[in-house]
Specification:
This protein has helices at about 5-20, 45-55, 80-85, 105-110, 115-125, 130-135, and strands spanning about 60-65, 75-80, 95, 100-105. The protein has about 150 residues and is α+β, with helices and mostly antiparallel strands. Strand 3 (about 95) and strand 4 form a beta hairpin. The N and C termini lie far apart (about 60 Å).
Length: about 150
């Protein structure tokens, strides 16, 4: 199985946690992220593989830790799309509005307010409601129509 995508995912996960010379070690092993004992050792990959295949592994998904401050283990991992992964980082800004908590990127799609505007508002101390309900100044994001025809 060493030629499979699943094995490559496993090896990259291992390197991020235990090989200081690896590019991303600082963000994983360097801050205490580890792999559970069940997924290490002589039968580590076999156990990981069984978990992966029984928990929705597919070639278009990647391993994602549910809580980014905890390590890789069956109770803290899932298989996610690239979009889901992008919304599950330590830098993701979440907003709660009318009882629903979503990343700023999703609120941006819903409201039409740019993600960076929502994020900046939140980081500047605005309440979640103010971030979402305050209209944009000026043209409110509408594009100015061009009256001249292209030649």
């Amino acid at each position: 199985m060493s030629e499979t995508r699943l094995y490559r995912i496993y090896k990259k996960m291992y390197r991020r946690c235990y090989k200081p010379q690896t590019k991303y070690y600082e963000n994983y092993g360097g801050r205490g992220i580890t792999i559970c004992p069940e997924w290490l050792g002589e039968h580590g990959f076999e156990n990981f593989s069984k978990w992966a295949l029984s928990h929705g592994y597919a070639d278009n998904l990647s391993i994602d830790r549910i809580d980014n401050d905890k390590g890789y283990s069956p109770d803290n991992c899932k298989w996610s799309t690239a979009k889901e992964q992008a919304n599950n980082t330590r830098s993701t800004v979440f907003l709660t509005y009318k009882g629903e908590t979503k990343p700023a990127s999703e609120w941006s799609e819903i409201t039409g307010i740019r993600q960076d505007t929502l994020t900046m508002r939140k980081r500047n101390g605005w309440t979640d409601e103010e971030c979402i309900e305050t209209p944009l100044r000026g043209r409110m994001g509408k594009r100015k129509s061009n009256s001249k025809q292209m030649r």
